[in-house]
Predict the 3D structure of the following.
Amino acid sequence: MLGPEEITCRLEKAGIDYCIVGGLASIAYGRPRLTLDADLVLAINPSQVAKLIEAFPAEDFYLPPSEVLQAELQRDARGHFNIIHQHSALRADCYLPGRSGLALWELAHRQRLPLGSSEAWFAPPESVIVHKLIFHREGGSEKHLEDIRGMLIGTPVDREIIADWVNQLGLAENWSAALADR
């Protein structure tokens, strides 16, 4: 069965830097749970779009057209697109760092960890926690707080780094909720 490592291996062969964030990262650092997609931050520049398209051929993968990818790359924040394997529905939600200090920090501090039968680049646990706090603020889902609690039990984290991002991004209320006993 096709897994997320198929996508990360193709990105690596194409020379595109990435790191795994979201559910797969919280599983790697915390408790197992079901996730239906892979969330990735991609450090791609306009000159690499052709390599990205070549790495995911249309007969096997859905990828937006080059013009859409180029437009997403121009966004200051929250550029986004999907890679979907057409035969299995495996999906990668790809986020572009733009000018996001957090995304740039996590790419600079990514870690190599096991993924399936290979290894892949994962965002550091501190940034995964901060992203989960942002998602909790935006949607209120308890799933994000549970992921954070699992990571705090399963992985040593630098709480000073988290506190810095929490202060910068106004996440104190969400961080308090994550630390509260449930």
